[in-house]
Amino acid sequence: MSAIDKSQQNELVREQFTRTAQVFGDYAVAARVREAELLAGMVKAAAQDRVVDLAAGPGTLALRFARHVRRICALDLTPAILQRARNSAAVEKLANIDFVVGDAQSLPFADGALDIAVTSYSLHHISEPARVIGEMARVVRRGGRVGVIDIRVSEDSQSADIHDRIERLRDPSHTRSLSQNEFEVLFARNGLRLLAVERQEHLRPFDHWMLVAGSKPGDPRYEETRKLLESTMAGDLAGFNPRAVSDNGPAELQITNTVLFIAGEKN
Fold first, then answer.
1. Closest to 39 (Cα-Cα) out of 58, 5, 64, 3
2. Closest of 205, 201, 263 to residue 61, by C-alpha
3. Taking 80 as the threshold, does the pLDDT of residue 4 lie above it?
4. Cα(136)–Cα(130) distance, integer angstroms
């Protein structure tokens, strides 16, 4: 994207996560504890480590990593959702987290200044994900680790395109999700030797998936997203595996998010 496009994208992200700071924050921090702990293990987080959680959001990673490392910086574009992370840290009496408003595409750290750089569910909101991986690799020392959790799309470009169309309808701040091969290529290009890769399938009720993005039944965004998603059900054209599930009651539309965990070490 051009500089103007990047600025516009950053504004979309701020608008989206200011609007959904509470509902998304409540969900992410509570539901993703195991994911954060899994990534902490993958990047070998240890008591002496200095860490950045970039595009930290409500502190999904930072609040867990703080229990394992010496100090962590939670950096995010959106003051409102960063404040939610700060409030949680205060309640949990975590004194080793610093909170910084900043851009993941231009980290305020010197080369090799940190031991670990991590991010979760952020790259599909960023105009230049390759630049972010480059920044993560830049700020960790040789032997330092980089860890990412994000939605993974099919290697099939048509499926990935439809997937992204649905995601952008749901949340206008979505840019593009990456395939596993794209993640691995970006790690290799930035001198990151793969330590571990894991994939998980996360079942999500459609209504809640929409709610945490800020819309509910009857909203135009909700209805348009549902219509497009349902059009992909035959053949699972977008990789969401949408299906109607009933437990002796009204059928509920559910989707699956395929989530990639990837960790690398700087050569």
1. 64
2. 263
3. no
4. 10
List the chain domain ranges: 3-158+171-202+257-266, 206-252
Note the pLDDT tens digit of each residue in 195-221. Answer: 999 999 999 999 999 999 999 999 999
Q: What is the 3-state secondary structure (H, E, C) of the chain?
A: CCHHHHHHHHHHHHHHHHHCHHHHHHHHHHHCHHHHHHHHHHCCCCCCCEEEEECCCCCCCHHHHCCCCCEEEEEECCHHHHHHHHHHHHHCCCCCEEEEECCCCCCCCCCCCEEEEEEECCHHHCCCHHHHHHHHHHHEEEEEEEEEEEEEECCCHHHHHHHHHHHHHHCCCCCCCEEHHHHHHHHHHCCEEEEEEEEEEEEEEHHHHHHCCCCCCCCHHHHHHHHHHHHCCCCCCCCCCCEEECCCCCCEEEEEEEEEEEEEEEC
**Cβ-based neighbours of 95, under 8 Å, separated by 6 or more:** none
pLDDT of residue 2: 46
Summarize the confidence of residues 228-256 as an average pLDDT: 93
- State percent of the chain over pLDDT 70: 99
Q: What integer pLDDT is reported at residue 6 of this predicted model?
A: 81
pLDDT higher than 70, residue 150 = yes
Q: Is the pTM of this model over 0.85?
A: yes
Those residues with Cβ within 8 angstroms of residue 129's Cβ, 6 or more apart along the chain or in another chain? 123, 175, 176, 178, 186
Which top CATH class is 3-158+171-202+257-266?
A: alpha beta
CB count within 10 Å of CB 95 equals 9
As given in the structure block, the two tokens for residue 58 are 């409500």
Higher pLDDT, residue 10 or 192: 192
